Amino acid sequence: MTSGGTAPAPPSTPSTWRPWEIAWQEALYGRAGFYRRPEGPAGHFATSAQGIPGVGELLARAVASLAARHGLRHVVDVGAGRGELLGRLHDLDPGLALTGVDVVERPCALGESVAWVRSPGGPDLPGLPLREPALVVAHEWLDVVPAPVVELDERGSWRLVEVAGDGTERLGDAPAEADLAWLTAHWPSPGEAGARAEVGRARDGAWESLCRNVSRGLVVAVDYGHERSSRPPFGSLTAFRDGHEVAAVPDGSCDLTAHVAVDSLAHDRRLRQADLFGELGLGTATPAYDLARSDPQAYLRALAARSAFAAATARPGLGDFWWVLREV
Ligand SMILES: C[S@@+](CC[C@H](N)C(=O)[O-])C[C@H]1O[C@@H](n2cnc3c(N)ncnc32)[C@H](O)[C@@H]1O
């Protein structure tokens, strides 16, 4: 995501110490949670789905072409924001069946032909059993599924990081056995006191339950992430508000996000956005200069398409996003 937008007033803040995972869930999906705010994600940051000229169209073409490759005519967007990607998919191919899933009521701007399901938020999904085959895409969902945040103490043991409503932190208990097992398997201790990690078990579980909802099709997670060889030594928990990256405070006034351990999600294939868009042939050639004279509008459109492709595949940048694919 990249930043942009207006800031709402924060709700009242809790005064007790809580493990990050619990405070994070409440801050984003509680009654006054950040993602229930009327301005939606686009009020605070841009993603490939919205806010970057031409990139939303490319994202829609990528999703539509994956659906076509797999013979799928139904696309379900989990964590659909305000339906930006769905709207573009409809413009591209009005014959596609489309369903959006998010924590808010159906967005007013969305056409009646798009179905909408309300979700509890975070790792929890609504009863979605999809009987017909579908391509299910979750674009920037897993990074906002809360995870336990842990830190190595002076004795070299992982401890849960607890947080107060104003963002002050302290070390708490040892993580649950299952979380320690996840860390051993996927995020080996770097041995230095102060090193941090976000435990990906909750994301793995959320991904599993999404895949279980699909009877046949392709499930796709698109997110920024890391692999075992490139874990961030101090984790990646951060926050966005009003167009800026800000301190992570679980008071409902900002997004809270951390990169996804993409290699721990059960999947068939993963590749970077830059590679996938190339593979799908979404790039366009530089328009011939003659076109500028014969058809200036077409020339400008071709230039815009080319710069959108460059933005969507830039590395470092949006081209680094991981596409994690699982056939069901
Ligand atoms: C970072 S925003 C991404 C929005 C959009 N996909 C995009 O890329 O612009 C994350 C979205 O996931 C939604 N979300 C979080 N947990 C969810 C869940 N369990 N079910 C459905 N949507 C969820 C949030 O409400 C929010 O709209």
TrEMBL record:
Keywords: Methyltransferase, Transferase. The keyword Transferase applies. The keyword Protein transport does not apply. InterPro entries: NDUFAF7, NDUFAF7_sf, SAM-dependent_MTases_sf. SUPFAM superfamilies: S-adenosyl-L-methionine-dependent methyltransferases. Transmembrane segments: none annotated. It holds the Pfam family Methyltransf_28. This is SAM-dependent MidA family methyltransferase. It comes from Barrientosiimonas endolithica. The lineage of its organism: Bacteria, Bacillati, Actinomycetota, Actinomycetes, Micrococcales.
